[in-house]
Amino acid sequence: MNSPVRVISFVNAGHFIDHYAMLIFAAAVIIMGPALGMAYSELLPYATPGFIAFGAGSLLTGWLGDRWSRRHMMLIFFVGIGASMISVGFVQTPVQLGAALLAIGIFASIYHPVGTAMIVSYAERLGREMGINGVWGNLGVASSALVTGVIGQYLGWRFAFIIPGIVTILIGLAFAMLVVHEDRKGSKQAAAQARVAKQDMWRVVLSLLIVVIAISTTFNAVTVALPKLFAERLADLTKSPALLGVIAACVYVFGAMTQYTIGRLLDRYSLKTVALPLSFMLAPFLYLAASLNNLPLIVVSIGIVMGAFGQVTVNDAMVGKYTSEEWRSRAYAVRYFIGFTAAGASVGLVAWLYEQGGFVTMLHAFAGLCLLAIAAAIILPREIRTPVAA
């Protein structure tokens, strides 16, 4: 059998890479625009097909993970997304750029339904491992803004894609040598820590559907728009792409800490107890951010990422707690298909709202959308929890 620590370590690395790869363009687009002779609002929509594939592809990849091999799918993920990142560094036209970003999205769609299911299968305590896994994903988001800003400033935007692509392929080769395929049918389901009454399951499904659409759309919009928002609103502090990347990375660190904390709380309390107070964070912070600049904007942005990343951990735990081992990749596939398809639409929506009224209009619109997270938390039923060892 595979070592749980080794498998979870590789899967956590995959979470880092997945979010890193999907957000390189969001940070690089600021310097790519002048190089390609295109405005921000013109260039950004070329990422839309990749973000849609990020969600739509999860239905097939989740099915393959359950029916074929999660290990083999993760190997394809590492090698495929690495090669796709490298290909972006060699594009010459916007059409080629869109095709390369689409390839990143297709391979990135493997991770969440397959990798998250692997975490649940090997985890001894679901909340803790979900929280730690979320931290790795968040660090990928933060590092993407930071490293892309630094590499882009000193080596050019093409190397911001090529270098992480090479590193990812090397990690994939290590994964191939150290993790083997194994049949986990009938294995212990470490996630079976909670259940709800059968007649209340519709409330879980409805709550998950609402919150996934609202939070995934907002999460993606915020992570895509934050580099540009900081470039505009922090001009009095700095205009350096590298320093703006450092600031964005520091903001995302608070999101990482939140995910770890939320994960630990989910091992001790019910989903509703954790989700309800958390659901009140995003809407007011997004509304406030619309009119702020410089240091106040940074402070409020910390609140935004804490709310958004905390909600993602809750959403993943909902699926992990209530699904069986043999269906888990497919359950996550549906969750991420809905979430990432909605998130894919947010890229075009960000560009359109920015054209209509700048970041004021965009942030107000997403603040209104996040009110749905409160309704979703209220809908959640009470849990009947199964005690777990400390």
UniProtKB/TrEMBL annotation:
Main location as per UniProt: membrane
Sequence intervals crossing the membrane: 20-40, 46-65, 72-91, 97-123, 135-155, 161-180, 201-222, 242-262, 269-289, 295-314, 334-354, 360-380
Superkingdom field: Bacteria
Localization terms from the record: Cell membrane
Pfam families found in the cross-reference section: MFS_1
Keywords: Cell membrane, Membrane, Transmembrane, Transmembrane helix, Transport
Domain Major facilitator superfamily (MFS) profile residue range list: 7-385
Keyword flag Transmembrane helix: yes
Protein name: MFS transporter
Record's keyword annotation contains Calcium: no
Annotated membrane topology: Multi-pass membrane protein
